[in-house]
Description:
The chain is α/β, with parallel strands linked by helices. The chain has 12 helices and 10 strands. It has a single domain, classed as Phosphoenolpyruvate-binding domains (TIM Barrel). It has helices at about 10-15, 25-30, 45-55, 65-70, 80-95, 115-125, 140-150, 165-170, 180-190, 205-215, 235, 255-270, and strands at about 5, 20, 40, 60, 100-105, 130-135, 155-160, 195-200, 220, 230. The chain has an 8-stranded parallel beta barrel with strand order 3-4-5-6-7-8-9-10, surrounded by 6 helices. Strands 1-2 form a two-stranded antiparallel sheet. Strand 5 (about 100-105), helix 6 and strand 6 (about 130-135) form a beta-alpha-beta unit.
Amino acid sequence: MSEGFFVNTQMEDNLSKHAEVKKITVNNIKNMKHKEKIVCLTAYDYTSAKIIDESGVDLILVGDSLGMVMNGYESTIPVTVDEIIYHTKSVKKGIKRAFLVADMPFGSYQISDEQALTNAVRIIKESGAEAIKLEGGKEFAPLVKKMVKMGINVMGHIGLMPQQVLAEGGYKIQGRHNEEKLIEDAIALEEAGVFSIVLEGVVDEVSKKITEKISIPTIGIGAGIHCDGQILVFQDIFGMFDDFVPKFVKQYANVGKIIKEAAMTYCKEVKSSEFPEDKHSFKR
Ligand code: KIV
């Protein structure tokens, strides 16, 4: 937990409802490199965002992974700018402390710079996100530069890029044969002005080299132990999504099982008229 983010009380009190919470900014995220690990997690709705914000997560991402875990799509490809804005607006309302980033979905920034800038501006203005994230390496550096010049905080995302699933023919771990390209991408993105870079599905040795070479934080997901921070998907770490569980996921709770058991008890009690009881009824 960073010193200075909470005012007047100790950590436990800080996490209670009445603590005065200091909002994390882009500068706080950048300054955490070499000082403390950056904790990032995805969220897609108000209730979940509020819970994880109060837990002390530093950065919340409304990822295009919402396509799979919220909408049941097979990949992130179908996700639209409108869907990102819809979910980010809800998440925003639940956050007091964490820095809020929203993904630019597939097709929203690749057609032209004009289209990309228009969509980035829409996401920032309409959703309340404090930054956007986009997948891509040095080929997107000129676009990133334009966004940064406009005042938009940009987070990079290299390595395994789920929006390339069709072109790649699957989800492939990166860095075994393209180390130089990944390092060049990271340097180009840093020079273009991103405040941080997600390294997804990258072999640990290469993540380590990138993390040492650049002066902005790297945030790993399946990228080993050397990154400056970590990010996981909400439904993965809480055991709520078992369509596919990648090797890099650590499940911190099995909320899916708890919900299923509770729902089964509810079904049983309604069928048997155990619920509702008299105490749940209103009287004249
Ligand atoms: O869409 C997403 O959730 C992401 C993270 C997993 C990095 O891009």
